């Protein structure tokens, strides 16, 4: 024997060569299978590019504003009286100097083309005490001078602000939106930003900033400079001891993602999981077919001495090649998809939260799909590869006896049935396992499918025979003859159809709820809204002056306002909304889930009582009658839950509604971000709207709308969002169609000789074509039927899961979606049958008969 | 000196209550350099015997000895190694890997055994030359005629210089001209290189080239003729007819 040097390399290389040749020998199949991987990877990659950007947009850094050693803030993020706090901090060991600031980051309203503020979108307004701020952190002046103590109407801006607004130079006057209307300031200096990416900063004197942000006499942070050699952590601990739990000395944590974002994340992850599941399934499907198809080749390899491991290896190498190739293409496609998703989401995001979305090129965005893609392929091809290795040379050279298949089929029904029963139990129990139940249902159907092929062929066969009277029986026989393959194909279609049904159910339910809520929430006549509704972090509202002004209009009967604050309870983020309990019920109706509306509003007027949203109830475990502690600017305060309720603006958030009086007392804010206006009976709505708009002249951060129109707009915008869902569903149908095409093509190839025989005994070309088409139709009906069942189960599971986290969606049975899914499934099957049917019909009789 | 020997070789299919004896206590010894043809009607157990001799299937009882070692005792990996080093197979359907060239197909057993690719391909070329296909090595199976494909399969069986070559109806799928060529090449490998060859066939004209013909019926050897290559197709056909009637 020749020396067996480098034997591993030789064998592996030979296997790789063979794998490559097999792949390139069946180009169509290779492309179709790889597409499944491409699709899964693309979806995951796109989501990882887009989602963190969205999350980031929500999470605004609250790190030190001026670059001091330590920043002391209120734990609730509220503003506070500087006097006692500054004194205590200055008295702390290790503190060299301290200064109070008032800062706020917000989005500027849209402006005319020629405005001096240029392309500035988001700015940070910082009020400082010129007398002490330079003791703590000396800003590096780029041009001009810093502010003087006692100065009013002057501003120092960062170079990053000037970069976006080139016309904003020394001596330039500019109009800035404030809580008390537009105010004019003059640029007296420019300072150098830490980085070009820093949020553009506008520094005013403290009194100017306090007026602009409607926080008279208050600050919201103390910046601290440490003595040389002082230990940062020691000083921080000392400050904390001195000030009590109410204050925290740190760079301050970034805001935790809003619960609503968690929900969005969960949903997109579900999509990703579903896509991955489908991808894995298609790969598994194809490799199983490949192994069956190549049985003779594999058996021969075993006969001439290949070990089981070597056979397993050949299949796995093929999987690896496709996995890597598919992943690379998937990354490219995913990038395109991400661009498309951003474009689709931009208008919605802009409408609601007024933020700009950006791609997020993190390491994990690349790493996750790059690891998952090949890993899923390897995992999915492992079982077929193992079963290929397990074939004895003889099994491979002889046809599989039918008895074995029947036996296997029976077991598949039993195992699948058990899965389905457990799944239904999970779904009905309504526990947190609902999603698991939904997926288990799908898995159960997949497992049971081979055993259901024969009954389904018997059940649906007559339907096909109606259409293809002479060929129907042959089609049915052909489907039933390879139950494994028929099951795999039908399962692929099932997943696609199930996804469509799930989407339909979800969208139906969500839109139903949203439009109900929208109509009820916007019950007032006229609405004054900021650039962003539902999320107010970035919004600069108005002081009480605006509401007064509108209240004075002759057509106006009632003005109710919303005032936001954010806090946390027991470590979990909580949004707070302040309302005037006396008038709020007249302009807006919150949907009460628990507790009585009148009693709840009455309770809000007395003491620290709160109405919490259903999401807060679920996430924080707050029920009517419970007490909970909120971090506030005045320290921890105990509130009592009097009702559970939500409206269209809060139903996705974890929020507590309290009285504006309590909001002012505990959170030191009385800034209105939304005004709901009722007109006197008989007033001309259009004229009233014009008057309100006139009153808003100094407040470009607001727009006024007739509530009826605004609600419709909102519903329409949300409808736009659902297009994205349907787009994803459509994407999932593509590989399902490819799977069908795949199987039908193999069936025709494998049955070449039989088709020749059918032709030899007098079958016409069109009869052969109809035979294959009938087969496609039968598979289509079978797959679509399973898909509808699974789709209903999955959508039920998803909606149950949503209610777990507080989105109480009524389950709307997706009747229209089911009909659409059935039609799509059957059409998909028929169109997938076109090519194979044509190639079967074209076969040359003699050659077909000699085909081996 | 026999190179392959079976002792009470038995293969039973079906369930215990209704056993079907594919082979029933067959004792057979094949000498080194012998060309043995196994004949018999359909279902007589000829293919089963061949598969058991080649370690493709396991006997229910009894043993197969190759050069005095019992191959029925080997595990799967050892059997695989034995197949690629000591046994060569030729099947009725040529069973070439469609995506590999003729010489790559021939080199396969060597490569599976860890022989360096260059060496394996060189030896494959030699084996192809021995079956008269020196110039066809670069072609894919689909570019070869049926007769050529079967000779490629024979080259693959010969390439590892096996102790025994086993052929299952190697001419069953060939026209008569290709069939004649094939048998002549088979005969030549026995005559020129002393290759031991066991062949299953139902074609008397093919069997006529063998040194010895074993007739099987209902899983038992019913006749054992040593022709020494002197038999005629007519004689054999006669013999078959007698057996079929008996």
Task: Explain how this protein is built.
- The complex is a heterodimer of chains A (852) and B (246).
- In chain A, 59% of the residues lie in helices and 15% in strands.
- In chain A, the strands form two sheets. In chain A, strands 1, 2, 3, 4, 5, 6, 7, 8, 9 and 10 form a ten-stranded mixed sheet that branches. In chain A, strands 11, 12, 13, 14, 15, 16, 17, 18, 19 and 20 form a ten-stranded mixed sheet that branches.
- By secondary structure, chain B is of the alpha/beta class.
- Chain B is 37% helix and 26% strand.
- Chain B has a six-stranded mixed sheet.
- Chain B starts with a strand and ends with a helix.
- Classes of the chains: A alpha+beta (852), B alpha/beta (246).
- Chain A binds chain B through residues 1-8, 10-11, 13-14, 17-18, 21-22, 24-25, 296-297, 299-310, 392-394, 397, 852, and chain B through 51, 54, 56-57, 76-77, 80-85, 87-89, 91, 93, 95-100, 104, 108-117, 119-120, 123, 156-157, 160, 173.
Q: Any idea what the radius of gyration of chain B is?
A: 18 Å
- Through-space gap between termini of chain A: 36 Å
User: Helical residue percent of chain B?
Assistant: 25-40%
So, the CATH homologous superfamily of chain B? P-loop containing nucleotide triphosphate hydrolases
Run of helices and strands of chain B: EEEHEEHEHHHEHEHEEH
Radius of gyration of chain A: 34 Å
Number of helices of chain A: 27
CATH architecture of chain B: 3-Layer(aba) Sandwich
Mean pLDDT of chain B: 85
Overall structural class of chain A, as computed from helix and strand content, comes to alpha+beta
The fraction of residues in strands of chain B falls at 25-35%
Determine the fraction of residues in helical runs of chain A and give it as a percent range: 55-70%
Mean pLDDT of chain A: 77
Judging from the principal axes of the Cα atoms, what is the shape of chain B? Answer: globular
CATH T-level topology of chain B: Rossmann fold
Number of domains of chain A: 4
What shape does the CA trace of chain A take? elongated
Which parts of chain B are unreliable, with pLDDT below 50 for 5 consecutive residues or more? Answer: none
Please state how the strands of the largest beta sheet of chain B are arranged side by side: 6-7-8-3-9-10
| Low confidence ranges of chain A | 1-6, 58-66, 251-260, 399-404
Strand content of chain A: 5-15%
């Amino acid at each position: 024997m020749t020396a067996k040097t480098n034997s591993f390399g030789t064998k592996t290389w030979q296997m790789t060569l063979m794998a490559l040749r097999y792949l390139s020998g069946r180009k169509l199949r290779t492309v179709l299978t790889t597409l499944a991987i491409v699709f899964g990877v693309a979806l995951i990659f796109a989501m990882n590019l887009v989602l963190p950007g969205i999350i980031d947009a929500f999470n605004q850094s609250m790190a030190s504003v001026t670059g001091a050693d330590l920043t002391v803030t209120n734990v609730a993020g509220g503003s506070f009286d500087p006097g006692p706090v500054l004194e205590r901090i200055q008295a702390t060991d290790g503190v060299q100097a301290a200064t109070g600031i008032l800062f706020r980051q917000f989005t500027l309203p849209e402006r005319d083309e020629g405005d001096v503020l240029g392309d500035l979108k988001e700015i940070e307004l910082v009020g400082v005490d010129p007398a002490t701020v330079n003791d703590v952190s000396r800003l590096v002046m780029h041009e001009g001078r810093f502010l003087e103590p006692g100065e009013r109407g002057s501003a120092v801006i960062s170079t990053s602000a000037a970069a976006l607004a080139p016309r904003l130079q020394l001596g330039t006057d500019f109009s800035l939106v404030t809580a008390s209307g537009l105010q004019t300031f003059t640029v007296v200096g420019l300072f150098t930003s830490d980085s070009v990416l820093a949020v553009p900063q506008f520094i005013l004197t403290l009194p100017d900033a306090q007026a602009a942000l409607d926080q008279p006499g208050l600050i919201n942070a103390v910046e601290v400079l440490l003595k040389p050699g002082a230990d940062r952590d020691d000083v921080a601990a000392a400050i904390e001891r001195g000030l009590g739990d109410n204050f925290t000395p740190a760079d301050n944590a970034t805001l935790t993602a809003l619960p609503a974002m968690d929900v969005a994340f969960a949903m997109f992850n579900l999509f990703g999981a579903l896509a991955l599941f489908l991808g894995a399934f298609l790969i598994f499907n194809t490799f199983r077919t490949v192994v069956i198809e190549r049985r003779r080749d594999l058996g021969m390899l075993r006969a001439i001495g290949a070990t089981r491991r070597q056979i397993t290896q050949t299949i796995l190498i093929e999987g690896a090649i496709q996995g890597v190739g598919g992943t690379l293409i998937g990354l490219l496609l995913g990038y395109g998809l991400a661009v498309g998703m951003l474009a689709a989401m931009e208008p919605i995001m802009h409408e609601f939260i007024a933020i700009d979305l950006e791609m997020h090129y993190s390491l994990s965005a690349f790493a996750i799909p790059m690891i998952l893609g090949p890993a899923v392929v390897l995992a999915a091809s492992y079982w077929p590869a193992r079963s290929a290795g397990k074939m004895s040379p003889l099994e491979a050279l002889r046809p599989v006896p039918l008895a074995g298949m029947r036996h296997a089929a029976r077991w598949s029904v039993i195992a699948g049935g058990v899965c389905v029963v457990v799944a239904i139990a999970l779904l009905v129990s309504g526990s947190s396992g609902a999603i698991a139940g939904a997926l288990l249902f799908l898995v159960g159907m997949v497992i049971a499918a081979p055993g259901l092929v024969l009954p389904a062929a018997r059940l649906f066969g007559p339907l096909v025979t109606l259409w293809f009277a002479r060929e129907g029986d042959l089609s049915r026989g052909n489907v039933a003859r390879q139950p494994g393959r028929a099951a795999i194909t039908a399962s692929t279609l099932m997943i696609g159809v199930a996804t469509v049904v799930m989407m339909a159910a979800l969208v139906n339910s969500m839109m139903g709820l949203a439009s109900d809520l929208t109509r009820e929430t916007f019950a007032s006549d006229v609405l004054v809204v900021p650039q962003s509704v539902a999320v107010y972090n970035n919004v600069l509202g108005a002081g009480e002056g605006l509401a007064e002004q509108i209240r004075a209009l002759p057509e106006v009967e009632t003005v109710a306002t919303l005032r936001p604050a954010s806090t946390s309870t027991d470590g979990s983020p909580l949004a707070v909304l302040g309302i005037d309990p006396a008038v709020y019920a007249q302009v807006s109706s919150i949907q009460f889930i628990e507790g009585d509306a009148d009693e709840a509003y009455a309770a809000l007027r007395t003491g620290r009582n709160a109405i919490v949203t259903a999401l807060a109830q679920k996430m924080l475990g707050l029920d009517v009658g419970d007490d909970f502690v909120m971090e506030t600017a005045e320290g921890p305060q105990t509130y009592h839950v009097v009702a559970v309720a939500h409206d269209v603006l809060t139903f996705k958030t974890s929020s507590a509604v309290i009285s504006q009086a309590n909001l002012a007392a505990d959170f030191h804010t009385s800034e209105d971000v939304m005004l709901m206006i009722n007109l006197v009976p008989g007033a001309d709505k259009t004229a009233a709207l014009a008057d309100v708009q006139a009153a808003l002249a100094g407040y470009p951060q607001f727009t006024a709308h007739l509530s009826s129109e605004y609600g419709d707009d909102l519903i329409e915008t949300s409808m736009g969002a659902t297009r994205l869902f349907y787009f994803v569903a459509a994407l999932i149908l593509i590989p399902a169609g490819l799977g069908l095409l795949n199987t039908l093509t193999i069936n025709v190839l494998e049955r070449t000789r039989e088709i020749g025989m059918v032709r030899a005994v007098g079958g016409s070309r069109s009869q052969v074509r109809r035979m294959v088409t009938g087969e496609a139709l039968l598979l289509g009906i079978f797959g679509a039927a399973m898909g509808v069942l699974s789709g209903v189960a999955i959508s039920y599971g998803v909606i149950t899961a949503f209610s777990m986290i507080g989105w109480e969606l009524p389950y709307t049975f997706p009747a229209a979606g089911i009909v659409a899914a059935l039609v799509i499934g059957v059409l998909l099957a028929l169109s997938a049958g076109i090519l194979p049917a044509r190639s079967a019909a074209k076969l040359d009789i003699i050659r077909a008969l000699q085909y081996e | 000196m026999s190179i392959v020997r079976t002792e009470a070789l038995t293969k039973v299919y079906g369930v215990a209550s209704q056993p079907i004896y594919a082979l029933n206590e067959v004792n057979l010894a094949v000498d080194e350099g012998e060309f043995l043809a196994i004949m018999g009607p359909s279902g007589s157990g000829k293919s089963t015997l061949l598969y058991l001799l080649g370690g493709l299937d396991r006997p229910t009882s009894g043993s197969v000895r190759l050069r005095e070692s019992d191959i029925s005792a080997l595990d799967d990996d050892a059997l695989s190694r034995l197949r690629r080093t000591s046994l060569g197979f030729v099947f009725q359907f040529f069973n070439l890997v469609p995506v590999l060239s003729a010489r790559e197909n021939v080199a396969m057993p060597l490569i599976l055994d860890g022989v360096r690719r260059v060496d394996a391909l060189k030896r494959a070329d030699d084996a192809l030359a021995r079956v008269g296909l020196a110039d066809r090595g670069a072609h894919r199976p689909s570019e070869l005629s049926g007769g050529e494909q079967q000779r490629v399969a024979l080259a693959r069986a010969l390439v590892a210089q096996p102790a025994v070559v086993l052929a299952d109806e190697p001419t069953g799928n060939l026209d008569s001209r290709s069939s004649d060529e094939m048998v002549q090449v088979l005969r030549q490998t026995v005559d020129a290189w002393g290759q031991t060859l066991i062949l299953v066939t139902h074609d008397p004209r093919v069997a006529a080239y063998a040194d010895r013909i074993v007739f099987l019926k209902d899983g038992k050897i019913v006749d054992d003729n040593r022709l020494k290559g002197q038999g005629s197709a007519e004689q054999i056909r006669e013999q078959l007819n007698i057996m079929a009637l008996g």
